[in-house]
Design a protein that fits this description.
- The chain is mostly helical.
- It has a single domain (9-187, 203-287), classed as Growth Hormone, Chain: A (Up-down Bundle), CATH 1.20.1250.20.
- The chain has helices at 9-38, 43-61, 64-68, 73-90, 97-124, 131-160, 162-181, 205-231, 238-262, 265-284.
- The longest helix is centred in the N-terminal third of the chain and has 30 residues, at 9-38.
- It starts with 8 loop residues before the first helix and ends with a helix.
């Protein structure tokens, strides 16, 4: 009989830990530009400050083979969350652009580690024939917390200020850390991991290119949408993030089994068209 059950302790805790970490990420993306604006940073400086996390995360991923050959996934996830948490402690304590960027790079180190190993740790817990379905549900956890994140973040900033916002981030990250701490069995270290810390495999170039393009687009949208909305005198911007996240939650149970049956090509083509239409509609707001 085909094994279909993957709702066990490890998978659930990994799902929770990942969802909460991405909740903090999605809380910070719309709020940090406002925080930078409050500190007097220019739009260009805000872009560098907020976007530095992705640069550091990209560099960190080059060292994944080195990390994998020396530490198990549980240790790496716990360490990555700690780095994320320490960065969240530092944001309200700094006001210098240079120091904020350095702290954001530090945050990116934790982001690169966690976003890499959360997905692989979850995949390790899934039967091969249910990878698409299982990762679809894994992604739903991310999307649910992402749908709540902007609402919570902007409400906390509006009613209680930036200090309360950063304290909220710290609390959520602490719960994420304890979820990973509760994993009953750590994945073993792979002694046959690549010999070099820096490895580039050409067969992954198309996938890497797609992820890079998507990351650039989504980071730009999430970073500058709150400021863009202010310039257009639009209110209720948190609803934009909420609807986007809800759409992601609804589509994932459909996309997962479709991936298992037909592969990624059709899914990628359809989503590319939808993403393009979405970007066009956002641009057209300027003309209304």
């Amino acid at each position: 009989m085909e094994k279909t059950t993957y709702w066990h302790r490890n998978f659930i805790l990994i799902l929770i830990g990942n969802a909460l970490l991405f909740m903090v990420y999605n809380m910070q993306v719309p709020v940090l530009p406002l925080y930078g604006k409050k500190l007097g940073l220019t739009p260009g400086q805000i872009g560098i400050f907020v976007g530095a996390i992705m640069f550091a995360a990209l560099v960190t991923r080059l060292f994944v083979p080195w990390f994998s050959s020396r530490f198990n996934k549980k240790f790496l996830l716990m360490a990555g969350i700690i780095l994320y948490l320490l960065a969240s402690v530092g944001y309200p304590l700094l006001s210098s652009f240079g120091l904020l960027v350095l702290l954001r790079l530090f945050n990116g180190l934790g982001h690169g580690i966690t976003t890499t190993y959360f997905a692989t740790a979850a995949a390790d817990e899934l039967p091969q024939q249910k990878i698409g379905e299982g990762m679809g549900y894994f992604g739903i956890g991310t999307m649910v917390t992402a749908s709540l994140a902007p609402l919570l973040a902007l409400a906390v900033v509006q009613h209680y200020g930036f200090s309360a916002f950063f304290l909220t981030c710290i609390g959520v990250l602490a719960v994420s850390w304890f979820a990973i701490f509760g994993i009953s069995k750590a994945a073993p270290v792979n002694p046959k991991a690549a010999k070099s810390a820096l490895i580039f495999d050409r067969q992954f170039l198309p996938q890497s290119g797609l992820v890079f393009i998507l990351g650039v687009l989504m980071s730009g949208v999430m970073t500058f949408t709150p400021i863009y909305a202010q310039q257009l005198h639009l209110t209720g911007i948190s609803g934009f993030f909420f609807i986007a996240a809800i759409a992601g939650v609804v589509i994932r149970p459909i996309v997962g089994p479709l991936f298992d049956r037909q592969g990624p090509r059709l899914i990628l083509l359809v989503n590319t068209v939808l993403l393009t239409l979405g970007m066009v509609l956002i641009a057209m707001l300027n003309h209304n």
